Amino acid sequence: MIRQTFPVGKMKCNCSIVVCPKTREAIVVDPGGDAETILAKLKELGATVKLILITHAHFDHVLAARAVKAATGAPICLHKKDIWLYRLMPLQYRMIGNKDKVPPRPDKLLLDGDALTAGALSLSVLHTPGHSPGSCCFHLADEKLLFSGDTLFASSVGNWRFLGGSFEAIIRSVNEKLMVLPDDTDVVPGHGPETTIGFERKNNPYLQPESLAEIKLAESKKPGKLKMLGLMILAIFGF
Ligand SMILES: [Fe+2]
Question: Is 79 exposed, middle or buried (0-12, 13-18, 19+ CB in 10 A)?
Fold first, then answer.
């Protein structure tokens, strides 16, 4: 397997290109910006993109999806439960002052357990709601590699306070879907440094009972979702 992971866009989303060395068929995970960079790397690698995988429908993971699809013809794949968020992409673009055309509708709707291939590469879709209802991780078991989107970060988990997010759901997803993977699984999160399942199992504060109890207590004192929604509306419309 050939893999290149590099930060793209202002939010420094980790975009990855995974290439089958035999067929040069490839997968692009989270084309979150800097389309020219992604396309230049694909050219350099001699890769034919078979799948454009989106871990979840936040703008910083899809900003270059339109350009990558236009250049490669590959299908955009997203979990079914994030379609409503994807449809809010014009609003998300507006929030960040981006006047680009939003990406086209997904070509393939993903479900938990789906198996996808590109050349000799095979991966399974793990539905891990919590950061958003349709958040997914992509697991390449043969390569001991996980793309964890904004579900699991090095020593943290994704923000659960966005619309459609849930603290209970993200903790459950990480425990039930990710912590069952082998310790030596490399983890490529949606932002920030790479880690491993084993390191997170031992060190991630969200996975240790004592620190999790403290986090839960602090969480109960934070503003609720309705207040957050109000703040979002204020930010978008300025009133
Ligand atoms: Fe996100």
Answer: buried
